[in-house]
Amino acid sequence: MIGEEEIEKMRGVVRDCVSKHLYSSAIFFADKVAGFTSDPADIYMQAQALFLGGHFRRAFHLLNASQIVLRDLRFRYLAAKCLEELKEWDQCLSMLGDAKLDEHGNVQDTNHSDLMHIYKAGEDREISISSAIFFLRGKAYEALENRSQAKQWYKAAISADPLCYEALECLIENHMLTCEEERDLLASLQFPSEDEWVSTFYSCMIKKHDKEVVVETKFRGLESLGCSTSSPDGPVISTLKNNSDLMACNAEYYHQCGDYQKCFELTSTLLEKDPFHLKTTLVHIAAAMELGHSNELYNMSCNLVKDYPQKALSWFAVGCYYYCIRKYDQSRRYFSKATSLDGTFLPAWIGHGNAYAAQDEGDQAMSSYRTAARLFPGCHLPTLYIGMEYMRTHSFKLSEQFFVQAKIICPSDPLVYNELGVVAYHMKEYQKAVSWFEGTLSSLPSSVTEMWEPTVINLAHSYRKLRMYDKAISVYEKALALSTKSVSTYAGLAYTYHLQCDS
User: Fold this and answer.
1) 385, 438, 491, 503: most buried, per Cβ within 10 A?
2) Positions of the TPR repeats (predicted)?
3) Domains in the chain, start-ordered, CATH in brackets?
4) Among 379, 390, 318, 329, which residue's Cα sits nearest to residue 358?
């Protein structure tokens, strides 16, 4: 006869096997423990060992055969996870129950009074099981291409438990929310006082078009956040200053500001320390593209294809290399391969469209941009590029409509204001153009750099067209202070002096 003490020791063996990734051993002993006791907790342990060992069908059968699966949320959730791994999405949703979302995003008819409980009391902090279930619903709806429902369930998951980072990651990485929606969601999250740093970290991850002083203050605050630990030599204070995720967020900010050199330097430093940090790798590739570093792109793409042949990022890097050396046919081939591996990888869709646009193949470029706009409603770039394509073909009214739509999605991107100014200039609406160009310069997160010299020149041209020659001359001189190598600036300035004399 085996006693309870021996059974408990065997449970410890199962847990230890799992921690050492000896899943076959864990399955073997968990099966025997469950056979001896028929305890629901032991059946769950057996199912979990089967799941971790990759035996999803068998784990699901074990859970589904038990009478507890419809009463215990843990059983139901694990059964649904098995169906997720088997890509049986409709059955996965069915297993999770009939919960609905109302028009305000609140969960109704869950038949579980404790579903919205956020934090559990206990020694360890636990992610709410309801939050995990909501997140899995979102994944299932996204796999079924019902992105509107997926977005709502991801929002429900992060609202049910702000520590469910994966839900926020899906919302951000898949560009499901506009800038305003991202800010509203973060403002609505209920964080305990000890987790305020998490709230600040999340705010650094969303689209960053705020003024430089605001964003830098957030980064500096997180970098200085310390934790004291004891060591034989006395207390040691560790901070997040060199944290990979925080540095990646900082690099993203520099990229969005157009400071590609600073972005590239930061990502280079980070990749030396953590060469497999894929979020940083993507930003690094984007910065290298803007700077024309084809050798760096070649080395990066070779390493990525070797280490991650099944990831869209790897083939996107190859496409970027060919785009950088102006071999657009090859770049399209690899961007297309990236989208076939992961249809939710936005940069590849944008790159695919840009490669067509570079060869004036507008219809194919538009097709890629429209697909991106449909898949990523929270990202304004596809809409912006559609407007640029219409402007290239002199369809100014149509281009203006898309630029306005891009502004609604992201009202703080200076590039949108600049394009609205350009299209107004082409339509000879010079007063409106002045307003948009001034709005561009005032919305820059930092001081005006050489990158924005064309905007300054366009503003001067607009003032000249309005016969406001003194203002035009002043703005031309500001453009020359940014770059002394622009022929158009000198020509515009000379022509303005000529017109001023004639008047």
Assistant:
1) 385
2) 131-164, 312-345, 346-379, 414-447, 453-486
3) 1-97 (1.25.40.10), 127-222 (no CATH), 413-502 (1.25.40.10)
4) 329
